[in-house]
């Protein structure tokens, strides 16, 4: 799902306080209380993608987020990993939320030492499919201590090899995180699913991959070798929403993400979402949100 607008680290940091930043490509931020982002009907944030690897350790309070349309509730000792390919949205946070956020740009990651023991594709898929985990209190405390050490190294401004020291320290942090994750293999064991649940999972994966181009229930049903009617019946039973509602919701999320790019015209958004013309896209958008794409863009 290329050609997607993204949120820069600097833009996100503008909403946060107590941030330690290295050259705009690596930062650690404390969240003590809810984000300083104006609340709106969509939640604390509109759906976005970021240009960085994003990790959060929740120390206190609760938050509700969604990744690729799937909701997750974070509470004390939760750890979440958000890939740049994820569609991410914060729905709400409790006022007492406390967490540590790490934001890591690709240019910083590229300079870190590889960890040969871990297969990158397998590791990527494991993390992408299992972005959230609950830690034991001692594990959370250990990672919090590692994050504090990283933060100290960000402050070594006069060190001749500042970036290299920081990258080595971050590699060490990933090793500590990997060690904890290896002790939680139950998180990565494929659960026993019913046939209907397997179809739901497969549909959501197809939707993530093709939502921008494919708007018809029949496309997804054909890929799953079932009828459109049966697919909608399954989704309605398991999620409360039929297939066409899932597709429409995914399209609206993609439209919101694209409309956040000020240099992208409404016509270009319509084209990227594979609508026949701008007017059809505008009618679709207004039907679901009550306002036109232009009005939505002015409000965001």
Structure write-up:
The structure is a single chain. This protein is an alpha+beta fold and 300 residues long. The chain has a 6-stranded antiparallel β-sheet with strand order 1-2-8-3-6-9. It has 2 domains: 9-188, Jelly Rolls (Sandwich), CATH 2.60.120; 195-299, Arc Repressor Mutant, subunit A, CATH 1.10.10. 46% of the residues lie in helices and 17% in strands. The relative contact order is 0.11. Residues 1-11 and 36-42 have low confidence and may be disordered. It has helices spanning 9-13, 106-109, 120-129, 137-154, 162-182, 195-210, 217-224, 228-239, 243-259, 266-272, 278-289, 293-299, and strands at residues 19-22, 26-32, 52-60, 63-67, 70-74, 78-82, 88-93, 98-105, 132-134.
Helix percent reads 40-55%
Count of beta strands? 9
Known CATH architecture of the largest domain: Sandwich
Kindly report the spatial arrangement of strands forming the biggest sheet: 1-2-8-3-6-9
Pick out the low-confidence regions: 1-11, 36-42
- What would you give as the CATH superfamily of the largest domain? Regulatory protein AraC
Query: Separation of termini?
Result: 23 Å
Name the shape in a single word. globular
Secondary-structure element order, N to C: HEEEEEEEEHHEHHHHHHHHH
Structural class: alpha+beta
Structure annotation, total helices = 12
Structurally, the number of domains stands at 2
